[in-house]
Amino acid sequence: MDAVVWIVVGVLLVVAEVFTTTLFLIMFGVGAFAAAGAAALGAPVAVQALVFAVVSALSLVVVRPVIRRHQRSALDSGEQPFGVEAIEGSTALVLERVDAEHGLVKIDGELWSARSYDTTQSYEPGARVRVIKVRGATALVWQDDVSSAGELPEARG
Q1: Residue 102 CA to chain centroid, in angstroms?
Q2: Which of 17, 52, 61, 144 is most buried, by the most CB atoms less than 10 A from its CB?
Q3: Cα(25)–Cα(56) distance, integer angstroms
Q4: Does the keyword section mention Transmembrane helix (predicted)?
């Protein structure tokens, strides 16, 4: 019965990790699955708890830094970006008015919800904008004509 409890705890931790994406809770999930293995082998509850603590701690100290190191941005590592990273910096066509609250743009043939990177700006349909960031499924856009803008959004204070 103890093994089932540990498995349920492990599954709950792994599911919670899906929503946090911090690579923290999953390490405790690994510890819970290890404790389930100890319980299945007939270890007493104190040993199960010790296995949970040791495996979780080792996962946090050893495995998590390795995963995070490999998770760094393709742009940081000089590799060809893909997915959302490939969209950042690209040009988009405004299809529906974009402001701080709502908007719709077309990026490489795909429709994306959009918001203005500068909340005081708005862009009318037909305007060209540059994708500065992507948050979830929403592109944060800035005017495309950098030379007439005078400054990049990163330079603003």
Answers
A1: 22
A2: 52
A3: 9
A4: yes
Residues 70 and 19 in one domain: yes
In this predicted structure, the answer to whether residue 18 has a pLDDT above a threshold of 90 is no
In a domain, 94, yes or no: yes
Q: Give the least confident one: 29-38, 55-64, 81-90.
A: 81-90
Pick from 7-16, 65-74, 133-142: least confident: 65-74
CA separation for the pair 125, 44 (Å, rounded): 67
Q: Which domain holds residue 63?
A: 3-75
The string of pLDDT tens digits covering residues 100-153 is 999 999 998 889 999 999 889 999 999 999 999 888 889 999 987 643 444 444
Helices 25-40/2-20 angle, 10° precision: 170
Note whether 11 and 68 are same-domain residues: yes
Distance of alpha carbon 131 from alpha carbon 48, whole angstroms: 50
- Structure tokens given for 37: 């293995």
